[in-house]
Amino acid sequence: MADKSNHSSVSEFLLLGFSERPDQQPLLLGIFLSMYLVTVMGNMLIILAISFDPHLHTPMYFFLSNLSFADACFSSTIVPKMLVNIHTHRQTIRYEGCLAQMHFFMTFGALDDLLLGAMAYDRYVAICRPLHYTTLMSPLLCVLLLALCWVLTTLAALLHTLLMARLSFCSGNTIHHFFCDVVPLLQLSCSDTSTNQIALFIVGSMILTGPLSLIIMSYAHIFSTILRVSSASGRQKAFSTCGSHLTVVFLFYGAAIGVYLCPTSLHSGGKDRIAAVFYTVVTPMLNPFIYSLRNKEMKTALGRLIGLSTLSSRGF
Fold this sequence. Notes:
Helix content: over 70%
Order of helices and strands: EHHEHHHEHHHHH
């Protein structure tokens, strides 16, 4: 008889995904494969454009390149396994693989969140305190902020992974989701999950609402400063530098807060899966378009990068 005090008597989980109908699997495979390829290529183009263009070696684009890296890794933690399951019609994932997927999902998801907060602070300093921008946003401070983001997200993910590893999953192994997320796993456990739920709420509140509060306060000061600008062109330029960031913030937080800050009793598998698609697949795919199409400097850098790639492929 298996000892329930051990980690788990379940060796693998069954990820239900979106549909069990065989006729819908090719369509789902094509949709998510296309979205994933666009996500990876789009974010890699952003990183390369920023790396090779000296005009973009500024704090704003430093954080943007790291956000693109986090987005690419975020989707890569989830989508490839989902695509393999759809293609093979085998929806299982091993217990160890499930915990690993959960860990990296939380790491890169939280990193996205904290980087959005750092980018809001950068915009605040650039617009509200422009004379002190080079001092307040020095290269050393940018690197320290990035390191702090990595440390906090890694520790938060490790805490949840260790708490999850102590739980027992005695018989049921069907996860009503398309990846190993914290909430569906907690609902599946036959152990007392009160500690996990408390940790999820506290850490989730800190990771989500902390940067969100910084974003709100930053933009309150930004809008107050912009409204005092007498020149219409000056106001338009200031708004244009913030529009892309705000769009991404609304997309990311709109879905994430509803999933992670609501009591688990209010969660519905179908609604959670739809919300999760937005912040795990759709938002990372849209971010490169949002930042490139609304940003003249980024469009110019991407044009140079694509032009250089074309010349190189022709042997010039």
